Amino acid sequence: MKPLIAAFALLVLAAAPATAMHHGKGLAKVGNIKIEQAWARATPGKVPNGAAYLTLSAEGEETDRLIAVASPVAKRVELHTHLMEEGVMKMRRIKAIEVAPGSPSVLKPGGHHVMLMGLQAPLKQGEKFPLTLTFERAGSVEVMVTVEKIGATEPAAHDHSGHGS
Amino acid sequence: MALLAVAIILGDKLLQPRTPEGPGLVALPAKIGGPFDLTDHRGQAVTEADFQGSFALLTFGYRSCPDFCPTNLATMAQALDELGAGHDRVAPLFLTLDPERDTAAALADYAPLFHERLTALTGTPDRVAEAAQGFRVIYKLRKDIDPVDYPVDHSTYTYLMDPDWQLLAVFRHSVTPERMAAVIADYL
What's the pTM value of the predicted model, to 2 decimals? Predict the structure, then answer.
């Protein structure tokens, strides 16, 4: 019986469409897209907005686009970027973030970010929260975001003290 | 005579003292920097005269900004920590450009979380505008984008003032805390 069950299981897995897998440490995969180092900053006091960051890479040939983000931690979750025009910083909503093979998209402070608007509660360092990303081709996947300290410039696991940006 | 007048005016503009250039710095006219008449996060009336005799490190921003403003404040806080013994000669200040949302009470639950000595300042929109103008800070509340959750476009420099409220140096947003501390230490 066992070998039959094993064979059946293998068949099912082989036939399955691209599955979304999410791991604990800010890592997830969906289709040919890999999401890594999902992190956010702890928010000071009761500020209404927070920001989350992550790295997106695409394997293979196809370019995809991150087109939607969602999370239970905030009333509205959007993709935003910063435009610097003559020394003036302008934060703007963007519709999508492209992920092309060989060209990872890195959401980081000062650049593209996931804007968490209307936080239900302050984000506290050390906590984790779920963030669902929807890609145009690959579909949706949930990633767990790790909350770093207030004003952190990068996730703690890759903190190189003494190397400022 | 007209040519001489033009030469004098141009010369004056070109020779106008500017703050130093260098990594993490931006050279701006040294006469930038003006008085302010605001309220701190404890609800006390504060002007620049209250910082007479102390260096000051000030930046402008707003609480609802989750990215640039916390970065600036974290850089300032870290730079002060790097200064070690001299740090208490430098007063860190955060001036909001969004006084409607950033009341003294709201700022009380914000500023100290970056640094225990960070003073946040707010006031009437007119007083805030005057303070910003003194530092040639460009800003715009983008209520046209969202009337409630509006972003604020703003310049992102951090200004170092001497004990007589004269501008010494201007830091870019991208300056490292180590570099900021090194520049400040030179003046202490």
Answer: 0.87
